[in-house]
Amino acid sequence: MAATERKFSPVAPSYDVIIVVAGPGGATAAYFLGEAGKKVLVLEKEIFPRYKACGGGLSADLLAKTFPFSFESIIENQIKEIVYAFGGRIFRVPLRGQAVRTVMRADLDAYILAHSRAEVRQGISVRKVTETPDRLIVRTVGGEVFEASYLIGADGANSVVARDAGLRHGKKMAVALEAELSASKAELHQFSSALWFLFGDIRFGYAWIFPKKNHLSLGIAALRPNRGELQKKLAQIAANFGFALKASQIKGHPIPIYTHKESISTARVLLVGDAAGLVDPFSGEGIRFAIKSGQLAAQALLADQPSSYPVGVHKQIGFSLQLGLAVAWFFYRFPGLSLALGIPSQVVTQAFMDMLGDRISYWGFAFRMIVGSPLILINKARQILAF
Q: How much is the pTM?
């Protein structure tokens, strides 16, 4: 098979690294590889800017720590508080500083990629990836052939690269729906500067309202929804808040759920972001892990040590997400108890924000919950006794 594939080599354009799809993980890898002088080709199946269903909440600290350029020109909103809604009750928790932002994924992905030195081919879908002992051969749907020493698969939950590389056969998926809602000035004012998390509307999931510059993002996600359940629940939530959902286009996408350590690379193929299943099993957040894994992939290839990549990913991401799976299991089975134990508190919320900013892992988050929950319960008991 390898000998057969090699007959294409004399005519196929050759690169150091080919990156399939330019989401935040692929674009990040392209940036760091290009800065190091590598010849990089990015194959993006869509035409930029392309929409991606995503709440778009992320940490300004993470961006500042990772990239040497500002993202202020694409920031949609600065977040000042977190709002939790459950069982008809609303809990508001102010944030320290303004370290959380919202962005549109179309803008974020294109912005990072624009800072890279990579060659970018848009509207190109990959049909087949073949790994030989010394090269990677990529065939596109349009019949083009490209070669590289290495390949980074950043092509999402249903990754073609993962399929052809024989990786992640037993992946678990959640499902998300999102609508970008036109909003009046009054609605924008009501929801501005806050991330809303709505619990109790669907089992094993949650809904959200995230403010953007001129509209609101309304979404819902669940691990095992029944057919049509997400659409029905999303419509109910929209009606409860008085949103005109019918005028908005609803987009859906699968969310890979991290359940255990698994193979995310071969000798010449590295998976990043959603393609590697690196999504928080509790919140469904994936931008942070896409950026981190993209940087780790670039570092491994620059060192010519691709085998170090899965080790680094498990140490810096996967090990933490294993605890996140336990947190998700407990919370989504006992949401009322979890909220009573202090989820909507300053201590726990700030811990979650620190985790979003990549300052602590799930282990640090769990430690703060364990330490903070008794104090929260004592304060609640004092409040009750005061009456």
A: 0.90
pLDDT at 293: 98
Sign of the torsion formed by the C-alpha atoms of 116, 53, 328 and 227: negative
| Separation between Cα atoms, residue 179 and residue 234, nearest integer Å | 9
C-alpha–C-alpha distance, residues 168 and 165, integer Å? 9
Order of all β-strands in the sheet with 57-59: 57-59, 100-102, 77-79
Pick the closest to residue 130 from 148, 154, 143, 155 (CA basis): 148
Write down all domains in the chain, each with its CATH number in brackets. Answer: 2-71+104-169+258-326 (3.50.50.60), 81-96+172-256 (3.30.9.10), 335-386 (no CATH)
With contact defined as beta carbons under 8 Å apart, do 199 and 84 qualify? yes
- The pLDDT value recorded for residue 28 is 98
Report phi then psi at 272, rounded to 5: -130, 160
pLDDT per position as a tens digit, 333-371: 888 777 776 667 778 888 888 888 888 888 888 887 777
Strands 172-182 and 215-222: antiparallel
CA dihedral 114, 116, 121, 126 (to 10 degrees): -120
Q: What is the pLDDT of residues 196-239, one digit of tens each?
A: 999 989 988 999 999 999 999 999 999 888 889 999 999 999 99
* Strand 81-86 to 194-199 pairing: parallel
Q: 57 - beta bridge partners?
A: 102
Cis peptide, bond prior to residue 281, ω within 30 of zero: no
Measured distance CA(342)–CA(86) in Å, rounded = 13
Give rounded-to-5 percent helix, strand, coil for the chain: 40, 25, 35
Give me the residue label for tokens 């294109």.
Answer: 110
Q: Identify the segments of the chain with pLDDT beneath 70.
A: 1-11, 98, 341-343, 372-387
Amino acid at 20: V
